[in-house]
Amino acid sequence: MAIAIAVTTAATGLAGTAFAGPSTGVERTAASAASNATVVVEAARTAAFTHASATGVSKGDALHAQDVLLDPEGARHVRFVRTHDGLPVLGGDLIVHLDRGLGYTGVTRAADHTVKPAAEARLTPAQAAAKAAEAAKGDAGGVQLVLDARGGASALAYQVTVTAGGNPHTVVVDAVTGKVRSNTPVRDEFLSPKLVDTLRERGESADPVTGSGSASGASGLLGSGASGVTHYPSAAKGPGKTLFVGTVGLTTTQTSRGHFQLKDPNRYGTETRDAKGSETEKFSAGTKFTNTTDVWGNGKTTSRVSAAADAQYGITKTLDFYKGTFGRKGIANNSKAAQAMVHWGKKVGNAFWDPTCNCMLYGDGDGDMFKKPLVVLDVTGHELTHGVVEATANLQPTIVDKYGNQYGEPGSLNESLADIFGSNVEFYAKNTKDTPDYLIGEKLGLAQKFLRRLDHPSLDKLEGTIDYWKPEVYGTEVHAGSGVSSHAYYLLAEGSGKKTIGGVAYNSPTYHNLTVKGIGRTKATAVYYRALTRYMVSDTDFHQARLATLKAAKDLYGANSTEYKTVDRSWSAVNVTAANTPAARH
Ligand SMILES: [Ca+2]
Ligand SMILES: [Zn+2]
After folding, report:
1. Are residues 488 and 475 in the same domain?
2. Which Gene Ontology cellular component terms are annotated (predicted)?
């Protein structure tokens, strides 16, 4: 007989709407939380229409709640997506802010214009599908009529899903002109096409060191065995002998006497499977990792399980970071598992977050440029954070080129947040085999010893990451542009100038040599998380991110606090100021 595995169920106030409780403060029961959320959503919806001149909602709009946040300090925030005359509005997202008494206090909105009623479509769905298939060089799947409100105007369009080999795209085709308005990869890849080209030109061959030495502080290194356990499945603890982080403790599932599975029953059933070289997006098509002993991998690529141990460790540490730090339950805060498949595809030198299967996909390396699987901790933290961003602000690239490279400030902010929180996963994990740092990809084996770094982004010569904002950043490739807010975050946390942290030397420069004294990583991270979840929307740019972090700092520490002033100073130190805020760009 199977006993129930402990699974935390999110209280849901509305069908499909995750209710996010405060990360601190009084625990609520599911029932009262649900009724509160319903009341708050209704109040926010009413306020959005009452304050239409500020919120931009109009007749024909319907608002659908995505997220409800009740701050212990009293503020309530409801994130909505929009439909207009029944059509989904792309870029129509907004957050309505209320006070404790449910009075309207403001709005954070994506489209800064009224979404106008649609013109008549001239293209048929079949014609749009053909255009989309041609643009993304694949087979068109579902076609949906939408209103595209991105970029300052609204247009009637078809949104088409195109499967191009193992690389699906979402293509938006203008329903009147037939023009392709956007062509965006569904899956987020860690290494951009541009970076892969650069590495190839340079003849880079990254072959990082692996090994199974014990990481100090790793708990649960001995398998718990079957003693005393008579009911299955049950939680067990076994060592993972990883490629990059030594021997670590993993929570696993004992399925029967002498049988174990690489699946964590204490973390929503988060599980890693073997794709066995296929490019499947179906997690169910992956092969389970099972064993007769509760030991996973051998620290080398000679065992298929070693990379799986790295993946499972990285994902569960990322989940623990978000839960332990912010009370966030899973990537989308809905108490659902984050899955992974390793050995994905043939000779794939990349790692991906795939929102379709809600899973991480890890290639084994192409055998040439990347000799090892891309399963290092900060890559996992980075990619899963893209999942968190997608479930919250859903920051979108402004432009995507035909190779899949992405451009623009909101996309740069997305990459930056992935690096910021990805680094924080390392600090949370405190693994002695992977010293926590403000570097991204230091264990990939690259010649420059890291891929990106937050203290002095322009030391990176592979992606051309920048230190300071300038007006042209609006058209910069997103990894290059990420330096602006990553640098501001580092300055907020650690301050300017030389500093050695955990044996790693940093030296953070500033615009006009402004001196910044940091407020510490914990506070800086709290400010950025609150800004992401409460005050950022799909088209937030760097100047709006400055305002979002200022609001977050005001909420947390007050408008006269050192923390608030340091947030302002940290943005000035990367040349993002109230004075140089650009006029609307469209
Ligand atoms: Ca790192
Ligand atoms: Zn990324």
Report:
1. yes
2. extracellular region
104 DSSP β-pair partners? 98
What is the CATH number for 498?
1.10.390.10
Q: Is 479 a catalytic residue?
A: yes
CA–centroid distance, 370 to ligand 1, in Å, is 18
The structural domain count of the chain equals 4
Mean pLDDT of 480-496: 98
CB burial readout 36-46, b (16+ within 10 A) else e: bbbebbebbbe
Task: Report the mean per-residue pLDDT for the chain.
Answer: 89
- The answer to whether residues 25 and 173 belong to one domain is no
Domain shared by 158 and 249, yes or no: no
Q: Respond yes or no: is residue 494 known to be catalytic.
A: no
Long-range contacts made by residues 82-86, C-beta under 8 angstroms, separation at least 24? 82/57, 82/115, 84/58, 84/60, 84/115, 84/117, 84/118, 84/147, 84/154, 85/60, 85/117, 85/118, 86/62
* Encoded tokens for 132: 């989309």
Which among 204, 271, 281, 383 is annotated as catalytic?
A: 383
CATH code where residue 182 lies: 3.10.450
Q: Does the residue 563 lie in any domain?
A: yes
* Confidence check: pLDDT of 29 > 50: no
Could you report how far apart the first and last alpha carbons of the chain are, in Å?
63
| 382, 344: one domain | no
Max CA-CA distance within the chain? 70
Q: Is 117 domain-assigned?
A: no
Question: Are 402 and 525 within one domain?
Answer: yes
CA 425 to ligand 1 centroid distance, Å: 9
3-state secondary structure of 87: strand
What domain range is 464 assigned to? 378-586
Residue 421 Cα, ligand 1 centroid: separation in angstroms?
Answer: 10
The ipTM assigned to this model is: 0.99
Output the pLDDT for position 393. Answer: 97
| CA 177 vs CA 59, 92, 119, 122, 586: distances in Å | 26, 21, 11, 8, 20
- By the 10 Å C-beta count (0-12 exposed, 13-18 middle, 19+ buried), 221 is classed as middle
433 alpha carbon – ligand 2 mean position (Å): 24
